[in-house]
Amino acid sequence: MHNIDEHTGGEIVLSTAMIFAAGWGTRLKPWTDDHPKALLPVNGRPLLQRNIEYLKGFGVVNIIINVHHFAGQIIDFIKANEQFGCNVQISHETEEPLETGGGLKKAAWFLRDANPFLVMNADILTDLDIPAMLAFHQQRQPLVTLAVSDRRSSRSFLFTRRQQLCGWRNNSTGQERISVPGEDCMPKAFSGIHIVDPAIFPLIKEEGKFSLVDLYLRLSAQYPVLGYDHSGDCLIDVGKPEAVEEAEKYFP
């Protein structure tokens, strides 16, 4: 794994990532009655393969994948494809899925020495420019950079004019959680991609199963958790069967 390279003027090299693939994928039934959602094919290539190849294209070659639902199918798929030429490790959540926060914490052994690392959901397809997001992260040096955009979503993160995370909103019910009171909070839809500094791990006090949304809201009251707006990029949440047809238009 790479740390800051003194010969590149302090430029951060991003070579490590985590892909969340442990969920039940209930929105993708009946496919997920017999398969993990990460292996759902789009134009014949499973989501997981597409995202490993997407990351590899930017030099991200150390990848850990959390698994639970039909974990064996994912493990066999990675082995059959010889890890796609990467260093792919598995974080097996054997008893139950630990959600995003618990999953990240369990994988800390692989991620804590990376500087920094990327996290993404297995069911997201995007052409987001990772080097541009990394440049933003390096310039601002937050604890976490969240990829966000101006698009319709059932839930939104809320940000100040300085791009600091200040809350969360359920757009269907109007429920809000404000972590930085007294600020004008603007909604942005989260894209399921984050760049995280490993300094986060000593700050995680939560145990067991918990969401990164809860963790980020708690930390944003004291630490910089910033939004990186990539509106205009292609991004498809392939979480429902009807989204596959749309994804196949943009990802041949």
Fold and architecture overview:
The chain has 252 residues and is an alpha/beta fold. The chain has a single domain (6-250), classed as Alpha-Beta Complex (Spore Coat Polysaccharide Biosynthesis Protein SpsA, Chain A). It is 25% helix and 27% strand. It has helices spanning 47-56, 71-80, 99-106, 108-111, 130-140, 212-220, 241-250; strands at residues 16-20, 41-42, 45-46, 62-67, 87-92, 117-121, 124-126, 144-149, 155-159, 165-170, 176-178, 186-196, 225-229, 235-237. Strands 1, 4, 5, 6, 8, 9, 10, 11, 12 and 13 form a ten-stranded mixed β-sheet that branches. α3 packs across α6. The radius of gyration is 17 Å and the shape is globular. It starts with 15 loop residues before the first strand and ends with a helix. The relative contact order is 0.18.
